[in-house]
C-alpha cells in the first residue's frame, strides 16, 4: 500500500481510486493505515471469499504464512477504466512481491493518459 501512496499525485490527476483487499484483520489494517499514513479503501478478506470470487487464491504458497491466515491471494494489481473494464493487470507468484511503482505508472500513462 505504501507503494501506491508514492503514486498518489498521478492517481489523483487521473481520478484513480485505490482499493486493496488483504488477508489482514481489520485491526491490522487500521494499525497499518495509522502507522504508515495510508489512504485508499482497505478491505479485510480473512476467509478469502473475495479472493476466490476473482480466482486469485495462491495454491502454490509455501509454509509459514504470516498472521495465521489459511492461504494467501496471488498478489495482483488491476487497473480498470471508468466503465469497470480491466485494462491492465500484473501478478506475482511470490506473496511478498508487488508491482513496482514505475511499472504501474507506465500502465496508467498507457491506458488512462
TrEMBL record:
Pfam families this protein is in? Answer: AhpC-TSA
GO molecular function, a single term: antioxidant activity
Q: Which InterPro entries match?
A: AhpC/TSA, Thioredoxin-like_sf
Instruction: Cite the source lineage.
Output: unclassified sequences, metagenomes, ecological metagenomes
Name of the molecule in the record: Alkyl hydroperoxide reductase subunit C/ Thiol specific antioxidant domain-containing protein
SUPFAM superfamilies for the chain:
Thioredoxin-like
Q: Where's the Alkyl hydroperoxide reductase subunit C/ Thiol specific antioxidant domain?
A: 3-88
